[in-house]
């Protein structure tokens, strides 16, 4: 299923605009929100400096907190829960919840590179756990990134679908670099059975926690 193809976002410090941004009065049964975090947005609701964009520019959701993190220079799915136990089950690697990423890399990974990613690579904080890695076409309907990635005329790029059950700091970027294919763009597509499908950058929706397949 392809993603929505929204208009190219403009650079701005103010809120992302769209329908139904206010979560002040969620349904009584809602405990989980899915948000498509844009590039250059902090995965938190406040910024001590007050100069950087945060999740507050995407939604207003009292009582909800991000379940895990997604780096400022990464894009895609962030789940927010109003229950600490659910946050823990989503974020902590001991629950072995699959998280799937779309990764644009420099060069064309061969089967050996993909096998290394899947088998596990040695990082400075130890070997990674077994993962799932496969080449993919550029996702249909993918929104443009602002600013665009750095292109090199003589170096092709490719897309890899990478699924992990752990979440070390900047792990995906370190893994692709370890097999000779630095990450250019990183989008988290899915957490468990919840995906980005239909969510434009900065948009959100309520989700059924059962879809996590915990």
* Count of strand segments: 11
Named CATH topology of the largest domain: Alpha-Beta Plaits
Mean pLDDT score: 87
State the fourth-level CATH superfamily of the largest domain.
Alpha-L RNA-binding motif
Largest sheet: 9 strands, mixed
The CATH architecture assignment of the largest domain turns out to be 2-Layer Sandwich
- Low-confidence stretches are 1-20
Termini separation? 23 Å
Number of distinct helices? 3
Spell the H/E element sequence: EEEHEHEEEEHEEE
Helix content: 10-25%
Query: What is the level 1 CATH name of the largest domain?
Result: Alpha Beta
Give the structural class. Answer: alpha+beta
Shape: globular
Our count of domains comes out at 2
Short description:
The chain has helices at 84-91, 111-119, 171-178, and strands spanning 32-37, 65-66, 75-81, 99-106, 122-123, 126-127, 132-136, 157-164, 183-191, 194-195, 204-207. With 214 residues, the chain is of the alpha+beta class.
Describe the structure.
The strands form two sheets. Strands 1, 2, 3, 4, 7, 8, 9, 10 and 11 form a nine-stranded mixed beta sheet that branches. A two-stranded antiparallel ribbon has the order 5-6. The protein has two domains: 30-96 and 194-214, Alpha-Beta Plaits (2-Layer Sandwich), CATH 3.30.70.580; 98-191, Alpha-Beta Plaits (2-Layer Sandwich). The longest helix is centred in the middle third of the chain and has 9 residues, at 111-119. The protein has helices at residues 84-91, 111-119, 171-178; strands at 32-37, 65-66, 75-81, 99-106, 122-123, 126-127, 132-136, 157-164, 183-191, 194-195, 204-207. By secondary structure, it is α+β, with helices and mostly antiparallel strands.
């Amino acid at each position: 299923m392809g993603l929505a193809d929204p208009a190219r976002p403009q650079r701005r410090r103010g809120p992302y605009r769209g329908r139904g941004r206010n979560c002040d009065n969620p349904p009584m049964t809602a405990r989980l929100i899915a948000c498509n975090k844009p590039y250059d947005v902090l995965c938190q609701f406040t910024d001590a400096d007050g100069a950087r964009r945060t999740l507050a520019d995407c939604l207003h959701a009292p009582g909800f907190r991000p379940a895990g993190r997604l780096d400022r220079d990464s894009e895609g799915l962030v789940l927010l829960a109003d229950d600490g136990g659910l946050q823990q089950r989503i974020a902590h690697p001991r629950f072995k919840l699959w998280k799937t990423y779309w990764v644009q890399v420099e060069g064309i990974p061969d089967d050996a590179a993909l096998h290394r990613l899947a088998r596990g690579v040695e990082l400075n904080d130890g070997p990674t756990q077994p993962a799932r890695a496969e080449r993919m076409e550029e996702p249909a309907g993918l929104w443009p990134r602002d600013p665009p990635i750095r292109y090199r005329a003589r170096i092709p790029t490719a897309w890899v679908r990478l699924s992990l059950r752990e979440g070390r700091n900047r792990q995906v970027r370190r893994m692709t670099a370890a097999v000779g294919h630095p990450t250019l763009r990183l989008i988290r597509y899915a957490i468990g059975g919840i995906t980005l499908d239909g969510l434009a950058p900065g948009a959100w929706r309520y989700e059924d926690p059962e879809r996590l397949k915990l």
